[in-house]
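Schema walkthrough. Field components (list of strings):
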Amino acid sequence: MSGHHLALRQFVVKVHTRCDLACDHCYVYEHADQSWQQKPKVVPPETITRIAERIAEHARRRSLSEVSVILHGGEPLLAGPERLDEIITILTDQINPAATLRVKIHTNAVLLSERYLKVFEKHAVQIGISLDGDREANDRHRRYANGRSSYDLVVKSIGLLQRNNPDLFSGILCTIDTKNDPIRVYESLLRLNPPKIDFLLPHATWEEPPPRQSQTDYADWLSAIYDRWEKDERPVRIRLFDSIIRTTYGESSLSEAIGVEPSSLVVIDTDGSYEQVDSLKVAFDGAPATGLDVFRNTLDEVAGHPGINARQNGIAGLSAECQACPVVSSCGGGLYPHRFRANSFDNPSVYCADLFKLISHVREATLMQAHQVPRKTIESFATGFGGDAEVRSLTESQASIRRMLLSDIGSADPETLRTLDSLEELSPGMTDTVFAHPYVRVWAVDCLRGKALVGHLRNITAAVAFRAGARLKTRAEVKDGAIHLPTVGTLVTDRTDGSIEIDGGQVRLLDGDREWRPVRTLTSGGHTVVLEDADPYRDCHQWPVAGRLSSDELARWQESFDAAWRLIEADYPEYLPGLRAGLTTIVPLRPDPAGGDVSSAARHAFGSVAAALPADPATFALLLIHEFQHVKLGAILDLFDLYDQNDHRRFYAPWRPDPRPLEGLLQGTYAHIAVADFWRRRRHVEPDPAHHEFARWRAQTAEAIETLAGSGALTELGADFVARMRDTLTPWLAEELPPDVEKQARVAAEAHLEAFQSQL
Amino acid sequence: MNHTGTEITSAILNLHNEPLSAVAKCSDRELAGMRGRIIGETSLTVAAFQASI
Ligand code: SF4
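Field assembly_structure (string):
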């Protein structure tokens, strides 16, 4: 189904190997690799057909929804408009049935004319144009072989593009020369009104260092533009700066030049040979070659090539110096070819000092910082556990998420937002206590998706005022005959007007009192959770929620919770600190009519577990441990990408009849580590069914871990996470069980797989 | 910036000491990634291609 390597999504297709300019900084002609001289000038139709078939084949195998092809050269316009039309038509016809194809072209634009634009308009081709600044800056390098300037022609072409097809203009690529004045370059490019500017460091290696006057003149040059760009309120997207800002906030980079994202790019030459990143040409003659080509080799094989893999290993694939660098998550060691020294890429970039200074400068200038999580914390969760400090770090980031959501919603009700701010000043911490109620985020997400009303923000504000002992008159949301104040209680009313007054810890309807039901709790071993049977937004689980509990029912819940908690204290103490730090709420569900156990956790309800009253304390303990695994992993997935979100494949899950998407498989596997552990330790108390359950869950979990590890879709962090899950499980696989139990588990697993396969 | 090789930068901005109205004033650009991640479809954007011609 898939290889073990990340999918390729970007294909730089060389359509013409020659160029009409003779720029002295160009890596194709002016650097070490001279292999272009042996390739066909223009890509032949049979080669482009094969290229297109290979991309379509890869897209199908990897279930890619979108791929991009960048037409490149040499100068791709030299192929002529008819030939380009033919090339793009072949690509589109072959690839589009498999995945959406986006076509881009990178050109010097001197030949760009209406005839070309018609072709690009027909195929919606995005056009990137190279220009190094004003006339003086551009003419420093970008000239014809006879020394003639290309500036006027390029500017004229950009004008034509802006007039005829502004939507197709993707931006300007500007190679830096620090002899040019940075502000003049910036201003002259800005005048051309591009949607985006990409500043490129000249190609260089440690063997052939870039021209420079000082240690960090590239950083100083770029910082001058950065400061001006911020002062101008970022009038244009500048990819390098955007990438530094994004990576500072934990998002992916937008450029291969920096960042630690795995490269998904491969270059295909006019003879159909696959190459690694093209700018490797600066390193040595033949550096980009893979020895593979479209006629003999699939893109899955290319994805497994060591040269491509070397750029897919994230931070772990970098030099020791880069791995220990404080800005590595933004820098990623710089562009791969720039690291070349003495036959090795295991070095920082030749631009290291510049990158460090520029990234530090941008980070200092941007206001907000992202949550940083110690690697050890994630590793601790990955083993299946995670204690007090670990869960508290998740709690803090959840608080940030809720602040973002509530402030977004507050823009529709600024007055309430102001009230919340003043309540926060009055009684610091109270807002967070109320916001931390799991169903506040559930409502907020629904609200921002247009599925719930803004009015509940006033109920939340009233709850904060109540807890802060403040006075407040507001018009709260009435839902299903009640005004619910999260974490505080519910006012039952038959009115639709929710005007209420909060004063001194009392809630009153302005037109007379109705029944007030304070929130109820369950307690055991010094830990208290809210028994949530009233919040109107709690109904987000896959099972229907129960209504308000009678006092008898509440007593049964309390008794069962207490017994379950004591069992966890006695037999499962490793899970206790995490539960204490993070489990805040239990939502009663309706019992399963078929008599089974039902329980659930919801991605947006951090801290909450929902369940129908379990039959016995052991079952209750098991479901608390099991569901809380989902709670922890959901919060980790809020913070980090453990797998490629664009991978929509479904995988066999040994405990389900249907194939599961990656998140489902990961969630199930993570929870079942704890389930296997539960039964593993329970064998001394109730060998039957504990032996059987342990045999079954450890086998299923082990199998799912290997499916995840072999999916080819895990990020660097995800692969490490799954490897640690495996480390926890592996010793359990060696634990002895009665032989008949082992056999039954094996037979059941085989039968399950067979049943699954027979329905495919 | 408290980032070392032993800490990993998450995709969630640290807003938990920011007053709500201050968060509301943050530029869309800074919050966009986080917002998309929580409310919309999340997406790991794969690094785009850089080239000089
Ligand atoms: S700044 Fe230098 S040491 Fe740090 S990651 Fe970049 S190239 Fe490596």
